[in-house]
From TrEMBL:
This is Synaptobrevin homolog YKT6. Keywords: Coiled coil, Lipoprotein, Membrane, Methylation, Palmitate, Prenylation. Residues 1-117 form the Longin domain. It is found in: Cell membrane. It holds the Pfam family Synaptobrevin. The gene is YKT6. Its main location: membrane. CDD domains: Longin, R-SNARE_YKT6. GO terms for cellular component: Golgi apparatus; plasma membrane. PROSITE patterns: LONGIN, V_SNARE. Residues 144-204 form the V-SNARE coiled-coil homology domain. GO terms for biological process: endoplasmic reticulum to Golgi vesicle-mediated transport. SMART domains: Longin. One of its GO terms (molecular function) is SNAP receptor activity.
Length: 204
C-alpha cells in the first residue's frame, strides 16, 4: 500500500469554533489520507466515523489520483460524488500530471507527508477547488444543477458504517491514530474523546 500524498486541499471550517478548527482540520486530513489509501482504483465509497463521512472517488490507476470529500453525515451521497467526479475531471484537464507526479512520488518514498493535508499543488493553480467547496455548501442548490448528470450510478457506491470496515486485516484505527506523525497530541486526544462518547450509545 502506497502512502497517499495530498495534492490539493480546500477547507470550510466556519461551522466550528476557532478553538476547534485546527484539531478538526487535523482529523479530517488524517481521515482523508487513511480512506484514500484503502480505496482501490475506480472504486467509490462512503465511510462514516463519528460525526464525519468521507466520500472517496478513486480514479483509474493510470491517473494516480483520488478525491475525498469530508462532510457531515447528512450531506447527500449523490451530490458528494457528483462534485468529486466533476472536480477530478477538471483537475486532470487543468493541472498537468508532470507538474506534481515526481514530487508526489518523492514525498511518498520519503514518508514525509505534509501535515493537515497541505497540498503540493498551489491553490492558485486550481482555484476551482475552493470555488466548488463554496458553491456546494447548499446541497439542494447543487443537486438542482446536477440533476441532468445521470452518469453516476449510486448502486456502485460502497457504503460503510465506520472507517474500521475499510482497514486491512490486523489494522486498528486507534493504533493508526497513535502512530500518526501528522496528528498533533491535541488532535489525538480529541479523537479518543470522540470515540469514547460514541462507544456508549447504540441503536435498538
Amino acid at each position: 500500500m502506497y502512502p497517499a500524498v495530498p495534492l490539493l486541499s480546500a477547507w470550510d471550517l466556519n461551522s466550528f469554533s476557532w478553538i476547534q478548527r485546527s484539531t478538526v482540520q487535523d482529523m479530517m486530513a488524517f481521515m482523508a489520507k487513511t480512506v484514500a489509501e484503502r480505496t482501490s482504483p475506480t472504486q467509490r465509497q462512503s465511510i462514516q466515523e463519528n460525526q464525519f463521512t468521507a466520500h472517496v472517488h478513486a480514479r483509474p490507476a493510470v491517473d494516480g489520483i483520488s478525491g475525498v470529500l469530508v462532510s457531515d453525515s447528512e450531506y447527500p451521497v449523490r451530490v458528494a460524488f457528483s462534485l468529486l467526479n466533476k472536480m477530478l475531471d477538471e483537475f486532470m484537464v487543468k493541472v498537468s500530471k508532470t507538474s506534481w507526479q515526481a514530487r508526489a512520488n518523492s514525498i511518498a518514498l520519503s514518508g514525509q507527508i505534509p501535515s493537515k493535508g497541505d497540498g503540493i499543488v498551489k491553490s492558485s493553480e486550481f482555484p476551482q477547488a475552493q470555488e466548488y467547496l463554496a458553491r456546494y455548501q447548499d446541497p439542494r442548490q447543487a443537486d438542482t444543477i446536477l440533476r441532468v448528470q445521470q452518469e453516476l450510478d449510486d448502486t456502485k457506491i460502497v457504503l460503510h458504517n465506520t472507517i474500521d470496515s475499510v482497514l486491512q486485516r490486523g489494522e486498528d484505527l486507534d493504533k493508526l491514530v497513535e502512530k500518526s506523525g501528522s496528528l498533533s497530541q491535541q488532535s489525538k486526544m480529541f479523537y479518543k474523546s470522540a470515540r469514547k462518547q460514541n462507544s456508549c450509545c447504540g441503536i435498538m
